[in-house]
Write a structure and sequence with these properties.
11 helices; 4-stranded antiparallel beta sheet; 385 residues; Butyryl-CoA Dehydrogenase, subunit A, domain 3; binds flavin-adenine dinucleotide; 10 strands; 4-stranded mixed beta sheet; alpha+beta
Length: 385
């Protein structure tokens, strides 16, 4: 597999890095402190084409590949993890299923506005009683003429407060489990659903996480993505791709934590030396640098597989599993290198620990990634036998 970036990918990397340096790093701590949605930064993401990176140009997107998306996600998340997840949800969990499973009328209606940042999307699968066991969901959408009538509550929805359309995964046939699930696009302009509780979180505080409430809400049948009963496939394949974005988010967080720890180790003195001259600190920095590069290789491998039309479910699960757990280890070490200063808000080290933690949970916990990897590995083995 060839990992040299082409001219476009290099340009995306430079553009995203400059954007992170100039527009995100200076304000990331304030966004975290205020717990405020980074509206101005998201508008700038749109202007750069980063809200619809892989959306085809004919539908109003940047028309780039998944590797470019992963590269941009890493850089943006290095600048601000909250901005990173807002970008990731709009790209991977909203534009991607509409582009892959929608018909041309649906693509024309929603992809351009989403890619241009005129509208923001969210993805609603989890519920108060079901997360990992997604097929255990309770929300129903029962057919009534040319509409579905939706009832239920979705939980933990990123962008829930700001989004004006939602890719909603529901039971259209509650007597079935996986096979009774469908995917609908719920456009708040025509079907105004309610916003419930806004969560107070450990990290990624600039991104909203809310419940969504559906009470006898009519959604046109024309808004269904794919066929009735395809929804579980839509949701799982969407998450397969989404995990590349979350892995890149975890990588970006780890990188900034590493950079700041390295800089600190060159300034701080103890026992008459820079702490970066102590073997214990150098070992930590060496492990951090190695793990960061290993994660990037896994992420790029998964992105290239998706770009080349190969199976990528196992690869994206590996990338997400490794990158998220790596990010937790790296941010933990970065805090440790800062000593007591790492524990207080004067430095960013504690924020990076808080921001990294969620990447081990959403879009499938680490335990679920291990299940996916084990299942796919066994399948591959059986196919060879
Ligand atoms: C900040 C935030 C943002 C989120 N954004 C979204 C979003 O935009 N859209 C959305 O739909 N959801 C979203 N989620 C939900 C997220 O995807 C779920 O929290 C996650 O999938 C885990 O589900 P759960 O919380 O119900 O935990 P559970 O599924 O109840 O799991 C609890 C524990 O049991 C383990 N476990 C469960 N099943 C197994 C198993 N078979 N084998 C081994 N261990 C298992 C889990 O790994 C975990 O450790 C978000 C969550 C958070 C916190």
């Amino acid at each position: 597999m060839e990992f040299a970036l082409n001219d476009t990918q290099e340009m995306i990397q430079q553009t995203a890095r400059r954007f992170a340096d100039q527009e995100l790093l200076p304000v990331a701590a304030a966004i975290d402190k205020a717990g405020a949605f980074p509206e101005a930064q998201v508008r700038k993401l749109a202007a750069l084409g980063f809200l619809g990176v892989a959306v085809e140009e004919r539908f109003g997107g940047a028309g780039l590949d998944v590797l470019s998306y992963a590269i941009a996600m890493e850089e943006v998340s290095r600048g601000c993890a909250s901005t990173g997840v807002i970008m990731s949800v709009n790209n991977s969990l909203v534009c991607d299923p509409i582009q892959r499973y929608g018909d041309d009328a649906q693509r024309k209606r929603w992809l351009g506005p989403l890619a241009r940042g005129e509208r923001l999307g969210c993805f609603a699968l989890s519920e108060p009683g079901s997360g990992s066991d997604a097929a255990g969901m309770r929300t129903t959408a029962l057919r009534d003429g040319d509409a579905y009538v939706v009832n239920g509550t979705k939980n933990w929805i990123t962008n829930g407060k700001e989004a004006d359309l939602c890719v909603l995964i529901v039971h259209t046939d509650p007597s079935e489990r996986h096979k009774g699930i469908s995917a609908l696009v719920v456009d708040r302009r025509e079907s105004p659903y309610g916003i419930g509780k806004v969560e107070d979180k450990l990290g990624i505080k600039g991104s909203s996480t809310t419940s969504l409430v559906f009470e006898d809400l009519r959604v046109p049948v024309a808004n269904r993505l794919g066929e009735e009963g395809d929804g579980f496939k839509v949701a799982m394949s969407t998450l397969d791709g989404g995990r590349i974005g979350i892995a890149a988010q975890a990588l970006g967080i780890a990188r900034i934590a590493f950079e700041e720890a390295l800089a600190y180790s060159r300034e701080r003195e103890a026992f008459g030396k820079k702490i970066g001259d102590f073997g214990a600190i150098r070992e930590m920095l060496a492990d951090m640098a190695t793990e960061i590069d290993a994660a990037r290789l896994l992420i790029w491998q998964a992105a290239v597989a998706k770009d080349e039309g190969q199976a990528y479910g196992k690869l994206s699960a590996m990338a997400k599993l490794y990158a998220s757990e790596m990010s937790a280890r790296v941010t933990h070490k970065a805090l440790q290198i800062h000593g007591g200063y790492g524990y207080v808000k004067e430095y960013n080290a504690e924020r990076h620990v808080r921001d990294a933690r969620i990447t081990e949970i959403y879009e499938g916990t680490s335990e679920i990634q291990r299940l996916v990897i084990a299942r796919e590995t066994q399948r591959e083995l059986a196919a060879k036998a």
